[in-house]
């Protein structure tokens, strides 16, 4: 008798699971995909630009409305609302389909822009900025999730590098564009210009983006959404609490931290029991996702959080005017373009992303360590070269967290996972800004008295330029001494991101013809 037939039933090989279906793009036509991608990039540029464009128009706004003490809240309200709703939008996209969720976010943002342009007081403007932020958070999360529906994993890496370029471009042109439009057309124009752009994008998405119906019944985890928003809001609010309560460790500030911790603990317990959790518990337990969150948080801390401080360093230690200092940032923007496009193509061709996260973080860490040791009088060309190196490093690594986390989770959780990456990036920027400010202030206090300078922190670049050479050199030396630990703190933060990137598994992204069961299964 045949041996195979003589074996007992229990000895038969277990049935092999059916292979996962190959990736199928939501839009098979390549030309239509490109047109939709352009619509998505327009929406992304509109949402991210509004966080930068208002900066140079704020003095004009304050001159009209007064209430200088609420100056910072025009920006903070936008960031707070954007950060709080990001995970919610990611989950809503998974449950209801990304098309409707994204169009809703664009509509909310556009309506908020109109209210901003019609504001009659500072309170009205701040409230409208919150409304804008509620839409902006959905736009930024949904775009990366829609990209996951349009492009296979390897090709997606290249297109998400273009998305990163749009993010950087908005940051580069925002302040200049805001000042120009405010001067030529009035400050309200910086908000009202979003109306025709928003309508154009809405019409384009309504006509050309197909609706993919989710395969499960929508069940919203309302309690989880509220708790997560409370935890995130507490973190961002704490980052700004130093201005309100005098210190990040003031009793009131610590009370904000306590509220955030309580919300986070209860949130975790709720998610374990929720039928459709805001952030799946499996994602919270996913080691790859946790490491990528650290990489994303560190990337936000130096990629976004360092910009204002580098600009201040240039104007206080080198004597550059605000205009010339701004032009020097072209080196960072150009470097990001080089690094992002290069890494996107290499990830697309090799399927590997771990190495790019480690290289990018290590590069920025090295740059800031060098910055911390630069003496007064360092040639501007050398500073520009360091800024170019930093830009290339940011570009190389900034798309790694999104690509990695999307590859590490099931397709049904891509939206929620993408939202957590965007959230940690912005959270890292918010926290880092306050940390850098606290370090700078601590080392500015107690410095030697400078003849002819009553309050060094009140000196504008124009006022510094009018000082005599000896006094100006003393002011520059004081700032250089204070900035050294600031740059070291930046290096430490991005160094943590480098360590997390090195601990990632060296997985290979799947090709269009194969679907991924999990990141761990692809490890080699």
Automatic annotation (TrEMBL):
Transmembrane region(s): 36-58, 70-89, 101-120, 126-147, 159-178, 190-210, 222-239, 245-270, 291-312, 324-343, 355-374, 380-405, 426-450, 482-504
Q: PROSITE patterns, alphabetically?
A: MFS (PS50850)
- Domain (Major facilitator superfamily (MFS) profile) ranges: 36-509
Positions of region (Disordered):
1-22
Give membrane topology per the record: Multi-pass membrane protein
InterPro entries with a match to the protein in the record: MFS, MFS_dom, MFS_trans_sf
Q: Which GO terms describe its molecular function?
A: transmembrane transporter activity
Annotated SUPFAM superfamilies: MFS general substrate transporter
Where it mainly occurs, coarsely classed, is membrane
| Keywords from the UniProt entry | Cell membrane, Membrane, Transmembrane, Transmembrane helix, Transport
Record's protein name: EmrB/QacA subfamily drug resistance transporter
Organism encoding this protein = Allorhizobium taibaishanense
